[in-house]
Design goal:
Strand content of chain B: over 45%
Largest interface: A-B, 23 and 23 residues
Number of helices of chain B: 0
Distance between the termini of chain A: 37 Å
Shape of chain A: globular
Radius of gyration of chain A: 13 Å
Structural class of chain A: mainly beta
Shape of chain B: globular
Oligomer: heterodimer
Order of helices and strands of chain B: EEEEEEEEEEE
Helix content of chain A: under 10%
Number of helices of chain A: 0
Helix content of chain B: under 10%
Number of strands of chain B: 11
Strand content of chain A: over 45%
Structural class of chain B: mainly beta
Largest sheet of chain A: 7 strands, mixed
Order of helices and strands of chain A: EEEEEEEEEEE
Chain lengths: 112, 114
């Protein structure tokens, strides 16, 4: 069964540093998403991406965040200057034309 | 804005008992998902419910969807310890203008005691 692949599985970074989280969605999917989950809390929507542009973003997705699909396969989330409160599990997901979201295994980001 | 509410948020039960988790949502949608999450792990898809009256069962878990009431239930029958996890419902807003995404409930942390 096709999978969404995320790397790295765990990243530790110092406050103020930039991080890039990487995702390889399922190849024939059209819609791409980033979600985050602070430890013990709900899964929160960050951004959706379709047709090479952001289709929707949440209040969490401020100017420190950006997304790219640089080469038609990878889908990246960049945090320019990390804060302690950015520590969370970040999930990438993709969806085809119809129903069915597939989530990656997540990247645990720890900001120290 | 699409909102999804689960209850209860915490549930501690004994093995062998039955219980139901409820998921209410605020806007018409006929696509609802249930996920399981173990601590530190990703989201494991349990059920996808695609129409009013849909019922799906897998082992001791059964999910149903009532789109008119905007309610889904996840019923656990004769619980066993292995079912201890956090369960999330999520509503697909992809057919709703301005909500082209999956919106999650708060999660129900289920603990099953021997």
């Amino acid at each position: 069964e096709p999978e969404v692949t995320q790397t790295p599985s765990h990243q530790v970074t110092q406050m103020g540093q930039e991080v890039i989280l990487r995702c390889v969605p399922i190849s024939n999917h059209l819609y791409f998403y980033w979600y985050r989950q602070i430890l013990g809390q709900k899964v929160e929507f960050l951004v959706s991406f379709y047709n090479n542009e952001i289709s929707e973003k949440s209040e969490i997705f401020d100017d420190q965040f950006s997304v790219e699909r640089p080469d038609g396969s990878n889908f990246t989330l960049k945090i320019r200057s990390t804060k302690l409160e950015d520590s969370a599990m970040y999930f990438c997901a993709s969806r085809g034309r119809y129903y069915g979201y597939t989530f990656g295994s997540g990247t645990r980001l720890t900001v120290v | 804005e699409l909102k999804v509410e689960q209850n209860p948020l915490f549930l501690s039960m004994q093995e062998g008992k039955n219980y139901t988790i409820y998921c209410n949502y605020s806007t018409t949608s006929d696509r609802l998902y249930w996920y399981r999450q173990d601590p530190g792990k990703s989201l494991e898809s349990l059920f996808v419910l695609l129409s009013n009256g849909a019922v799906k069962q897998e082992g001791r878990l059964m999910a149903s969807l009532d789109t008119k009431a905007r309610l889904s239930t996840l019923h656990i029958t004769a619980a066993v310890h292995d079912l201890s996890a956090t369960y999330f419902c999520a509503v697909d807003g992809s057919l709703i203008q301005g909500a082209q995404k999956l919106v999650f409930g708060q999660g129900t942390r289920l603990t099953i005691n021997p």
